[in-house]
Amino acid sequence: MKQDAFRVVQDFEGAIAEYTGALHVVTTNSCTAALLLAFGWYVKNGGTKIAMPSRTYPSVPMSAYHAGLDVELIDFKWSGVYSMPPSNIIDCAKRFTNGMYEKGSVQCTSFHAAKLLKIGQGGAILHDDAEADTWYRRMRFDGRTEGLQTTEDTFPEAGYHCYMSPDAAARGLWLMQSYPVHMPDQPMCEYPDMSRWSWTR
Q1: Model's pTM, two decimal places?
Q2: Would you say 55 and 193 are in contact if contact means Cβ atoms under 8 Å apart?
Q3: Rounded to an integer, what distance in angstroms lies between the CA atom of residue 118 and that of residue 128?
């Protein structure tokens, strides 16, 4: 009998949803990829600009730039998480704790070895939008519809290759068996001031 190796990814997403309180969870191969998809959906729905701290991990403003956004970098200190107005996207790379989801938000978290749930690599989008959920899942999987062979599928939009692998999901599911109910946020690191650089399209 043919086994579905990707079932463990769905199980891991379900465990994250139950733990965080999010209605929908879409895993990716990194938090950067999660942010890129979140920014992409924001742009698809009319977003044109976004603000974020100038001192953050470099891939955050880079992902916003690649998504087509005008990025405003503001010098302020933060801990654990920060919002990015006027969007509802929140960078939660340094937070992973019980009940963390905020209704109406799009939270992107990280499972890097240096973060709280130390899978080694990976990220997730926590959200509550059914339409966005379908789009995120297609975009993370080369523009494909999960469960269909490529010869049976249609490709209305160019996707990305950033799905979470089953082995990473299995490790995450295993780690969550003994993961604490409450985990404190990680503090802000000594990040470079990204306002020193600018990019042109």
Answers
A1: 0.95
A2: yes
A3: 25
